[in-house]
Amino acid sequence: MARNKILILNLSIGLFLLIWPVLALGQNTLQKQIEDIAASGNGKAGIYGLIIETGESISFNGDNPFPMQSVYKFPISIAMLDRVDKGIFSLDEIIRIDTSAYIPKNGHSPIRDKFQDGTNLSVRDLLKYNMEESDGTACDVLLELLGGTDSTEQYIHKLGIRDIAISTTEMIQVANDTIQYQNWVTPKAMTQLLKIFYSGNILSERSRALLLAYMFASSPYFDRRIKGLLPPGTEVAHKTGTAGTINGLTRATNDVGIVTLPNGNHLAISVFISDSYDSQKKRELTIAKITRAAFDYWAECK
User: Which of 39, 68, 108, 244 has the highest local Cβ count within 10 Å?
Assistant: First the structure.
């Protein structure tokens, strides 16, 4: 019996030693692909991809800070839904929004554009506008309900996500193009947040499902990045973030999300492009190519 156990152990070790160089080669190939795609653009790219079920990962500038732009609406929504789960707020609670809360015209706000005299919206409505419409006014109202940026940041830090700063409101951020750097995250930290949101117990199942539904919502404008080159029908829950272009410079073009692979595993991926003079089409295509490279590697090799 002991000899059989030793034989099985030796066979297992031998099999691993045979397979490991192949796995390492594949990982190196993916790393090279991502580096080449990133290098083809005019700007700084940061990528972190992680298979939620296995822990396998890929990184390029994954520990460097990048401006989030509207990607920060994802952690803000998590923080609000945590308050809902704790009974501090109700999804059906009505919130008065006066015109004084509206962000300036150079910021994106369908609420401001639709309700010129102010309005009353539920917490559920605010979350939907925040995620599906990337509405800056909805974001600021949620931040105010949460007690401000410091309180929201502290909540995310308590989840174990330390490399993130939620420092300014949309109202402040849209006033000056350089302020956006104060709201930053590393690609690795954002991907870790995606993972604990998706597979952890930080939210109730109802709140988790609601936020995923908002992240699954699609439009042609938002689908050119992570989803841009994936096979039709691939499930993607994601949140984009985009800075304005001033004198040809775009300080942030981002997309973070969770991609369902053909084998049922899930790729959590964050792609940030900062300080780029490329066209929007090229920036978005870079994100799409990086995601497709990761998708193909883990879909075909795992």
Answer: 68
List, in sequence order, every residue forming a beta bridge with 60; answer none if it has no partner. 47
Q: How do residues 20-71 score in pLDDT, each as one tens digit?
A: 444 444 679 999 999 999 999 999 999 999 999 999 999 999 999 999 999 9
Q: Rounded to an integer, what distance in angstroms lies between the CA atom of residue 44 and that of residue 36?
A: 13
The active-site residue, picked from 170, 270, 274, 284, is: 170
Set 70, 77, 134, 207: catalytic member: 70
Q: Give the pair of three-digit tokens for residue 201.
A: 């117990």
Q: Specify the amino acid at residue 22.
A: V
Active site residue 70: yes
Q: Is 40 a catalytic residue?
A: no
Q: Which two tokens stand for residue 187?
A: 């690609």
CB atoms within 10 A of CB 61: 19
pTM of the predicted structure, to 2 decimals: 0.91
Neighbours of 197 (CB within 10 A): 23
Closest CA to 57 of 247, 253, 190, 146: 190
Instruction: Return d(Cα 110, Cα 103) in angstroms, integer.
Output: 10
Name the CATH code of domain 41-301 (choices 3.40.50.1950, 3.30.1440.10, 2.40.30.110, 3.40.710.10): 3.40.710.10
